[in-house]
């Protein structure tokens, strides 16, 4: 496999690093977990570990303490596949007993071809098969006085925020993506089940719910927006229900369907964070057509203007692909011009690369790697300039922040416009004594950089 175009520091599809669990008791069977890829995969890892902990397993934070290691893989891009194969190899080298699951597990021959000694390979969200493989490798040995007491869910993120997955799969057929092949068509969770999970999380101390799926706007379409136990499976209704719980609610992966405009008043009213993560991918109609994406960039600008008219504080985040097969310099310039008009607040960008099984591989006129890189640099220069200008305009303003961590130098926080790991931070370097992760407070902004802010607590 060739060297990756998009190493981890250039990819916006990566979830936060999992946090370590408590030390096991003597004699307790112990499993390690490596979770790669997006937040949706991180939720799968949490579900697997929750089931294992309920069966009496401990979770090891390192290879040496684990009797076997589960690697939850990503198959989104060839660079992600390479990262997954490297992680499997490292786990085999350091531990020797490895069970593979996740998106790349949908192609077991790729994994066993590179690493024939893995104990088992399962596909995405095949929880029972993963548990069966763990039982075979490391038989459970629960302590009936400790381990069989119902336990809370295992969280791989800091306790003050949590990802809330509302559906699996996707009904789109984008030429560059194989997610529907790996994870299937859209399968929405019942709304009452989502709300109950959110209620439990908030009761356990979660202050921020990050709503995720492959297509959040389409939530409930497959089950005809069914209503049960007082909750309707429609994204607007779900957002309203979640917003009533008292935690921050952040929406990710929202396609700009017309009904998305119904979410904006909820943001203006403070029920949901004024933040939309929308995968625009490109702006030129011909590039979007080749991607098999909706080609309505001009109308999208009008829609963005409507959103901002209703909720002036809204933060818009998106990801784009440069160097898609057939992308001309004129098409790329259209993307730059569109970005200059849209002035999105947060932007991520991929250099296109082939993904095994994707229909885009067969398209003509692939863009040379050096041109992709040059366009990526130009795109990020424009995006960075827009970000710096927007943040500079916020100096002197007041904003709410949530504290992520505190050390001797200060507190690292996020504003409503910043999702964990993928967006910027607001740093407090004075008067931070007494702050703790999960605190939500008002801050006055003192300084701005290209992507980050600095401020101080402001009680006024």
UniProtKB/TrEMBL annotation:
Binding site for [4Fe-4S] cluster 2: 170, 174, 177
Annotated function: Catalyzes the methylthiolation of an aspartic acid residue of ribosomal protein uS12.
Name of protein: Ribosomal protein uS12 methylthiotransferase RimO
Primary location recorded for the protein, binned into one broad class: cytoplasm
InterPro entries linked to this entry: Elp3/MiaA/NifB-like_rSAM, Methylthiotransferase, Methylthiotransferase_N, Methylthiotransferase_N_sf, NA-bd_OB-fold, Ribosomal_uS12_MeSTrfase_RimO, rSAM, rSAM_horseshoe
Family membership noted in the UniProt record: Belongs to the methylthiotransferase family. RimO subfamily.
UniProt GO molecular function: 4 iron, 4 sulfur cluster binding; aspartic acid methylthiotransferase activity; metal ion binding; protein methylthiotransferase activity
Alphabetically ordered keywords of this record: 4Fe-4S, Cytoplasm, Iron, Iron-sulfur, Metal-binding, Ribonucleoprotein, Ribosomal protein, S-adenosyl-L-methionine, Transferase
Biased composition (Low complexity): 16-29
Binding-site residues, [4Fe-4S] cluster 1: 38, 74, 103
Region (Disordered): 1-29
Cofactor note as given: Binds 2 [4Fe-4S] clusters. One cluster is coordinated with 3 cysteines and an exchangeable S-adenosyl-L-methionine.
Required co-factors: [4Fe-4S] cluster
Subcellular location: Cytoplasm
Source organism phylogeny: Bacteria, Pseudomonadati, Pseudomonadota, Alphaproteobacteria, Rhodobacterales
Alphabetized Pfam families for the sequence: Radical_SAM, TRAM_2, UPF0004
């Amino acid at each position: 496999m060739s060297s990756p175009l998009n190493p981890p520091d250039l990819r916006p599809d990566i979830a936060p690093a999992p946090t370590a669990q408590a030390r096991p008791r003597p004699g307790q069977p112990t499993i390690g977990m490596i979770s790669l890829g997006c937040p949706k995969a991180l939720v799968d890892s949490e579900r697997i570990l929750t089931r294992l902990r309920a069966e009496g397993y401990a979770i090891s934070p390192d290879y040496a303490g684990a009797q076997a290691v589960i690697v939850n893989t990503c198959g989104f891009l060839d660079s992600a596949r390479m990262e997954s194969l490297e992680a499997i190899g490292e786990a085999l080298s350091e531990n020797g007993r490895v069970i593979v699951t996740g998106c790349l597990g949908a192609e077991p021959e790729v994994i066993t071809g590179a690493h024939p000694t893995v104990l088992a390979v399962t596909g995405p969200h095949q929880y029972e098969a993963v548990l069966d493989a763990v039982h075979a490798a490391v038989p459970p040995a629960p302590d009936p006085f400790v381990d069989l007491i119902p336990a809370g869910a295992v969280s791989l993120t800091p306790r003050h925020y949590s990802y809330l997955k509302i559906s699996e799969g996707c009904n789109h057929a984008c030429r560059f993506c194989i997610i529907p092949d790996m994870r299937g068509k859209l399968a929405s969770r019942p709304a009452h089940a989502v709300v109950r999970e959110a209620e439990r999380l908030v009761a356990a101390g979660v202050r921020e719910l990050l709503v995720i799926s492959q297509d959040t706007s389409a939530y409930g379409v497959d089950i005809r927006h069914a209503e049960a136990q007082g909750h309707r499976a429609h994204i607007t209704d779900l957002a309203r229900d979640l917003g009533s719980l008292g935690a921050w609610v952040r929406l990710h992966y929202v396609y700009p369907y017309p009904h998305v405009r119904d979410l904006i008043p909820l943001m203006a009213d403070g029920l949901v964070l004024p933040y939309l993560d929308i995968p625009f991918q490109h702006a030129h109609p011909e590039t979007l057509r080749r991607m098999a994406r909706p080609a309505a960039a001009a109308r999208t600008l009008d829609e963005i203007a409507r959103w901002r008219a209703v909720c002036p504080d809204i933060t818009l985040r998106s990801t784009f692909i440069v160097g898609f097969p057939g992308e001309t310099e004129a098409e790329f310039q259209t993307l730059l011009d569109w970005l200059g008009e849209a002035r999105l607040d947060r932007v991520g960008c991929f250099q296109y690369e082939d993904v095994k099984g994707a229909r885009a591989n067969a398209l003509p006129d692939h863009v040379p790697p050096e041109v992709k890189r040059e366009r990526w640099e130009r795109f990020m220069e424009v995006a960075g300039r827009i970000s710096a200008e927007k943040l500079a305009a916020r100096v002197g303003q007041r904003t709410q922040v949530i504290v992520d961590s505190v050390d001797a130098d200060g507190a690292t926080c996020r504003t409503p416009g910043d999702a964990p790991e993928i967006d910027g931070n607001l740093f407090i370097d004075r008067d931070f004594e007494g702050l703790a992760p999960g605190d939500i407070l008002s801050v006055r902004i003192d300084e701005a950089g290209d992507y980050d802010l600095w401020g101080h607590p402001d009680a006024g």
